[in-house]
Each structure stands twice: as structure tokens, then as C-alpha cells.
Amino acid sequence: MSKKENFCKGSSSAVVFGEIMCEKLKVSAVEAVCNKTGVDIAGQMMCSFPAFNGNRLNLEKHVLASLAEKEDFNIFMTYIQNPRAQVEAFIKEQVKEYMFMTQKVKAQNILKKNVEEISRVISQALFEATEKVKKEEGDIQMWVEEFSSKLKPKLTLDTVSCQNFSDINNFEFLKEEIEKGLKSITTEMSKLSLEKVNNCRQKPDQILIDQLCNCCWERCPFCAAVCTNTLKDHSPEKHSVPFHRPSGVEGWHVRGTVDLVIDFCTTLVASDRAFYADAGSEEAFPFKQYPTAGEKYASWSITADASMLAYWKWFICHFQNELEVYYDLKFQGSGEIPQHWKNFSKKDKK
């Protein structure tokens, strides 16, 4: 307790107490406006932003489109090796673009609306708490409790000690003192920037990451395609993905050679070929019996079919040299890139 609070007596108590309340209100109000704006912007993007308003596969489609647009091999490899990190980076990038470029006016209007709403909540709570205490002839402790409860759940006020303010009995005067300070609080809130919102506790990008990334991130042991199950732990249901990739994307190659594997997993599991479960393994397992190679293989359901995304054919053709350097292997021999793959562009989705 400060000297100022300890020694204020008489009618000046209401003035000092009003100042203390306004300081606490300012902190709570700014935090409430920022957090509500963060939640609202995230909600708006979940409803109207194409990448975020569909299923998991839809999000991946937009991430892949973004990667193709950038044509940055290092970012691609981050996505292949650590897909969650790249998806989170994509979400942050999209939120930043939405808030500060494409939908800046809309974001600012959300912020403005929340400033007005929080100001209204404070004014209403101030009026109702004062009226009730006057009617019931309560004390300062009752006023603080009433005021705090009326602010919830929009605002949470830090604990206020009434110990040295028991002499306050003119609550209309106290209300007027706080109303004076409320004008400067509203002015302060009106100056809030979207940058401030983006650094608050309820950051819009973090809200979206928590909602969109709370799912399974297991990667196919053959091609690194990410399981599309929306549940983090979906056991006993096996991991699966609608579209696999050429295994060379993950660095699979023919043992004893430097030849990268060009085939898609869905083709391999239908073939009579075999594979080694890891680099040091001496036992070869038939692709048709891949679940027998251990848990990391058995936990996946890979259907033998002819589904091959043209996107990954384009990726291998476009980044052939970079992939060969990255893995110190070659697309040659049995892993030679088919000539017709070179006709695909990054815009081909099928």
C-alpha cells in the first residue's frame, strides 16, 4: 500500500480511489479489447478465409499452393521434414497479410467496435453498481464487488483493497470521478493499433494455430505425406492420406546405388519389390507386406491405387538438381524421371 493510499482521508478518498480504479481499469480494458479483437479476427478468418474454412485437406492444398508460388526449395524441405512448422508459418503469414494488407480496414473496424463495446460495458457496470449500493446503503467493499461482477466476463479487474477507503459514502461522487477517468481510458483504447492486437495474449494467429494444428502430424514412412486425420490421437484407426508422393521426395533410394526412387507409395505397395525398414537393416520386406516391417509401417494404411498428384511430379522436375544435392543421390536408372512429367506445371493439382 502506497503512502498516497494510506493517508488519504475524508472527501479526498473518493478522488484517490477513483484514480486507483481508473489505473486498474485502463490495464484491464486495453487487454480486453486486444484479446476480443484477436478472437474476433481469428473467427472472421475461420469463417471467410478459404484456407481456413474447410477441412484439413483444404488447408494442405493452400499450403502447397503457397509453396509453389514461392518456389523456395528450403521452405519446401521444411514442409517435407517438419510439416507442422511450415503450416504454422503459413498461418502466421496469412494472418499478417489479412490484418495489415488485404483486410486492414475490416480488422480496424473490428478493433473499433470492441473499443466501443468495452467502454459501454464499463459505463453500464459503473451505473448499475452505484445504483445498487445507494439503494441498499452499502459500503465501498460492496461497491467494488458489485462493480467487478458487472464487468465480468468481458473484463477482469485486479484485486482492489478497500482497507483505507471505508470513509467513502458518496458513491455518486465516486462514479463521477471514475467517469472523468473513463474518458481518457476510451481515448487510450482508441489509439490501440493492430500491431498491439497481434502481440496480445489472444493472438489471432495463435488461436488459429491451436484450432487448425491440433491434429495428427505423423508422416508416411515412405514419402513423408502427412496423415490427414483431424484427431491428434486416433488409435486404433490407422494413419492415412488421400494422396501420397514419390518416395524419392523423402530420399528413398535403391540400396547399393545412388538411384532415387521415383515411384509413388501407392504403386510400390502393389508391386513385387521389397524394401529395408531402415538404413542398417539386413532384412528386406515385400512392399505388399509393408505392415510386417515394424510399428511405424503397420500404423499406416496405404491403399494400392493409381492416384498420383501431378503437383509432386512438377516438384521433382522443378527441383531435381536441388533434391539430388540435398540427398547426394540421383534420379537415374530405375529412378529416372519420366519425360512426360516435365510437361506439368506448378498449377496442376491432379
Automatic annotation (TrEMBL):
Domain of life: Eukaryota
Name this polypeptide is given: VLIG-type G domain-containing protein
Organism of provenance: Poecilia mexicana
